[in-house]
């Protein structure tokens, strides 16, 4: 996973960001670029939502890069709301780099975290583990 702070400060500066926000933890946007990942997109979004503290998760941006059928069909309206899913849809495949760029552009969090669309975080792993030290 790669994380970026808004404003161009990269990587492990997440801990410093927590102090810069006057005792308030920064909000994370998790970006998942997905192309024909099927049910893995759902499982990844659910797993990341379950393992990321609600007080820091702003959204999970799923970039559907031309999947057929569209990945949105795997999520109920309730799942989308509960998992804080925001959709970016490409009608045709545009490639991983473009999907990451479009997802990053759509994200509104203070820190962006990029995962592959087919990962399962372990119980001790969260997008925010560096803030909990």
Question: What features would you describe in this structure?
Answer:
- The chain has helices spanning 14-20, 39-51, 77-82, 96-106; strands spanning 2-5, 28-34, 57-65, 85-90, 111-114.
- The chain has 133 residues and is an alpha/beta fold.
- It has a five-stranded mixed sheet with strand order 1-5-2-3-4, sandwiched between helices.
Short précis:
The chain has 133 residues and is of the alpha/beta class.
C-alpha termini separation: 18 Å
What's the tally of helices?
4
- The strand line-up of the biggest sheet is 1-5-2-3-4
Radius of gyration: 14 Å
The 3D shape can be described as globular
- What is the β-strand count? 5
> Which strand-content bin applies to the residues?
15-25%
The major β-sheet equals: 5 strands, mixed
What class would the helix/strand composition place it in? alpha/beta
Overall pLDDT score: 84
Order of helices and strands: EHEHEHEHE
Helix content: 25-40%
Q: Any low-confidence stretches, pLDDT <50, length ≥5?
A: 6-16
Characteristics:
about 25% strand, alpha/beta, about 130 residues, 5-stranded mixed β-sheet, 5 strands
Write the layout of secondary structure elements.
Blueprint: E1 2-5, H1 14-20, E2 28-34, H2 39-51, E3 57-65, H3 77-82, E4 85-90, H4 96-106, E5 111-114
Parallel strand pairs: 2-3, 2-5, 3-4
Antiparallel strand pairs: 1-5
